[in-house]
């Protein structure tokens, strides 16, 4: 493998963009051999678009269409076309609030990753930090995983634990998980960009560096 080759990332987000910033900073300081080719959002005024433009990255809003929790057919085609035109090799979901399935996953087979704010398979779906708090677990965390046809079910790439403290409320726990996310996501993307992650069935294995 050519070590100068940079993996081209397409980042999709609907929110503030703190994970995108962490990835952009890790690329800038040389710890992730990748480049952000395109940032896309389904929310016209999402912070992630402003923050991406602050890094001089191409950033676009693409309307999601008529559904609330997924892209409609036309929108899905527009997302795929934009990512392909930008030469994206790995799609990185960073707070993208729509489920991607079917055509999209077939367009980027085993090339879509997500970060989820819990230790999967516990607490899938929305507000995972609240689910952890309500359940009473003593540890939760975050998980980077490949995206498959299910919701938060794809092969796990990396996880980081976060303690739940007795004085925690939703905000404090969520903030502690997000600190962990901003460490874990760049590390996982770095391993992917270096070709160190291989999928074996429902597991991933780390291969040793050549
Ligand atoms: C993150 O906390 C992530 O776990 C979830 O969405 C949030 C995105 O935050 N999937 P940001 O937009 O990266 O700040």
Short description:
With 210 residues, this protein is of the alpha/beta class. Helices cover 33% and strands 24% of the residues.
Fold topology:
Elements: E1 7-13, H1 18-28, E2 34-41, H2 47-54, E3 59-61, H3 73-85, E4 90-93, H4 102-107, E5 112-116, H5 128-135, E6 139-146, E7 156-163, H6 170-193, E8 197-200, E9 203-206
Parallel strand pairs: 1-2, 1-4, 2-3, 4-5
Antiparallel strand pairs: 5-6, 6-7, 8-9
Helix pairs in contact: 1-6
Give structural notes.
The protein is α/β, with parallel strands linked by helices and 210 residues long. Helix content is 33%, strand content 24%. It has 6 helices and 9 strands, in the order E-H-E-H-E-H-E-H-E-H-E-E-H-E-E. The site of 5-O-phosphono-beta-D-ribofuranosylamine has 14 residues, from helix 1, strand 5 and helix 6.
Kindly list the characteristics that best describe this protein.
210 residues, alpha/beta, seven-stranded mixed β-sheet, 9 strands, 33% helix, binds 5-O-phosphono-beta-D-ribofuranosylamine
The set of bound ligands, ions and cofactors reads: 5-O-phosphono-beta-D-ribofuranosylamine
Shape: globular
Assess the beta-strand content as a share of residues: 15-25%
Structural class: alpha/beta
Let me know the average pLDDT: 96
What is the overall number of helices?
A: 6
Give the CA-CA distance, first to last residue.
8 Å
